[in-house]
Amino acid sequence: MPEITIKPATVEDAREMLAIYAPYVEATTVSSEYEAPSLGEFIGRIERFTQKTPWLVCRIDGAVAGYGYASPHRARAAYQWSVETSIYVAEAFHRCGVARALYSALFELLTRQGYYNIFVGITSPNERSIKFHSAMGFVISGAYQVSMYKFGQWRDVIWMAKSLRPHTGEPHPTLPFPQLAGLPFVTDILGKAAAAIRAPQ
Predict the structure, then answer these.
(1) How far, in Å, CA of 145 to CA of 157, rounded?
(2) Model-level pTM?
(3) Which of 44, 52, 158, 171 is most buried, most CB within 10 Å of its CB?
(4) How far apart are CA 105 and CA 186, in angstroms?
(5) Cα(183)–Cα(145) distance, rounded to whole angstroms?
(6) What CA–CA distance (Å, rounded) separates 160 from 120?
């Protein structure tokens, strides 16, 4: 049986995570970046965002199979209960349930932190991603029409949203992820998510 784990990402994971991300930048419209970030820049992103939100890395037999993270949706105060999420999976580990497991863990952790909304932007056309996010409980909430130019073509960006809790009453401030990362329930959430991943065939 393969060893499958999901854990909070650290800068030690950055090089392998970047190796997964770079092809999405260089060969697809999944990422809106034109050039893959340097290792130093990527480490800076991990260090900056993990002060508040979780970045998770999945390893299968020691190799990084994929990673997922949340980041602030917008900077102004009234949006502080909303995040954006992204999931990237190495090609060798597609169809093993890695993305679904990472999302399941993120949903639970973000709920425990006190977040209300998750948004994801999907470059159109990408019916596979839209179908996947629909299965994960997201609904289409709008589009930035002809807002993205890459590889010589203008494209729409479809926005999908997922609610984590009822929007009733005054929200409490969210808890930074480092305050929760070492607690037993986090280990349980990550272990449960990892157990749902299938070994590659």
Answers:
(1) 6
(2) 0.95
(3) 158
(4) 9
(5) 43
(6) 5
CB within 8 Å of 38: residues ≥ 6 apart: none
Nearest CA to 22 out of 39, 47, 10, 5 is that of: 39
- Sign of torsion, CA 85 98 101 178? negative
Q: Which of 3, 174, 1, 4 is nearest to 97 (CA)?
A: 4
Amino acid at site 200: P
- DSSP-derived pairing of the beta strands 82-89 and 63-72: antiparallel
Q: Indicate the Cα dihedral angle 15, 41, 51, 162, nearest 10°.
A: -80
- Taking only the tens place, the pLDDT of each residue in 48-95 is 999 999 999 999 999 999 999 999 999 899 999 999 999 999 999 999
